[in-house]
Amino acid sequence: MEKIKQSKLFDTLSKKMVWGFIFLITLGTIFLSLPVATRGMQGTSFIDTVFTAASATCITGLTVVNTAQHWSFFGQVVILILSEVGALGYMTFAVLLFNIIRRNLDLSTQLMVKESLNLENLSDTKSVMKYVVGLSALFQIGGAVLLSFDFVGRFGWKRGLYVSVYHAVMSFCNAGFDVFGNSLMGFRDDSYLLIVTIILIIGGGLGFLVWRDLLLFHERHRLSLNSKLTLMTTGTLFVAGFVLLLVTEKDLSLLPKGTSWFNRTINTLFLSVTPRTAGLITLPTSSLQSGSVFILMVLMFVGGTPGSTAGGIKTTTFGVLMLQSIAQLRGKKDVEFSHRRFSQSNISRALLLVFLASVVIALATLILTQTERIPKEFGLEYIVFEVLSAFGTVGLSLGLTPHLTVIGKVIIMLLMFIGRVGIFTSLYSLSKRQTKFNQIRYPEENILIG
């Protein structure tokens, strides 16, 4: 009976979360449809407006129109707000509203916050919310101040402060929208700007629970298993991606001649960080080496940390399966890490997540191969890269996004939505799961594997 109640409750919460994001996208579409949202009151087609609202709410950054050239100041601010709310979760702002009017959170709201931030215990809701709001404000305000030292000198006080705030928010939220027209390609020689951006991207993608553990380490003198696994996996992917890109892009011919060794290293470092769902880029993605494109696709598929502003299958999922594979190869029955043993339900959930993600990506790729035109200089990677970028809420593209057909735009929007809301939440909200638990267990039998 208790399991049935929990199942029904989870289904209800999943539906509420899905409808909450749909409401935000709808609201964003209405505001972006206003003539004042575009430069010269030119307006935007309905499908492009919905696509932009979905991309902003799902903090992806894929664009069918140039953000800097098409959208007015009002439109850009709407995109900024949608990205902020989408990154922190609309439940975060609901809790803020409750605090402002000094009302206690009811059980339903606390459960929604718990699910949206991937918390284990309901008691963590209030304390984690403080860190979510506080850390977000600290990173974004601090980032804007640091960026203003660069941008104010370039654009003057008014434009410089606006660009600093916009870029700080988009970097921390891992959204990928820019107001320059070509992402950060015009700043590839500005190592200071790139380093600040890298810090903001990592800050947003590491996860609020991990940051809370790190900030409380001086009191607790320990980290949770989740934080240890996250830091280990994130560090491994960070170093591996950087080293591999140093090899595949060893000459970095895309940079101007005479570029310093330090700046070349920073650009490579930035290239290894941005596919972790940031979407900002200093080098044209379509001109990268094939090996580099493959590495970016792998990093986009993995993504960031649960409970962060990042997408993908998440670092913890990748870490659990990596340790599971190592344990199996060593003939161990248990999957151990940091003197702890992962539960079988954890491993099964990770396997199911990867399987479902693979099915969704494969199906979307198949559909797009039939609806989209692939340029002669590209192959299947032209489609796969776009699909992984949407599912991982990254925002990078080999150039397909502006040329998507209506069907292609719908498919990419669905991928962005699933990537942001979560594949489990999305599918559970659509499916009718059985709540009667069968007590009959059939005999066990093995089959041939591999």
From TrEMBL:
> Which keywords does the record carry?
Cell membrane, Ion transport, Membrane, Transmembrane, Transmembrane helix, Transport
Please name the InterPro entries in this protein's record: Cat_transpt (IPR003445)
Give the subcellular location. Cell membrane
Spell out where the chain crosses the membrane: 21-38, 44-65, 77-101, 128-149, 161-180, 192-217, 229-247, 278-302, 347-368, 380-400, 406-430
- Tell me which domain of life the UniProt entry assigns to the organism this sequence originates from: Bacteria
In the bilayer, the protein is annotated as: Multi-pass membrane protein
Where is it mostly found? Answer: membrane
Q: What is this protein identified as?
A: TrkH family potassium uptake protein
Species in which this protein is naturally found: Levilactobacillus fujinensis
At the highest ranks, the source species' classification is: Bacteria, Bacillati, Bacillota, Bacilli, Lactobacillales
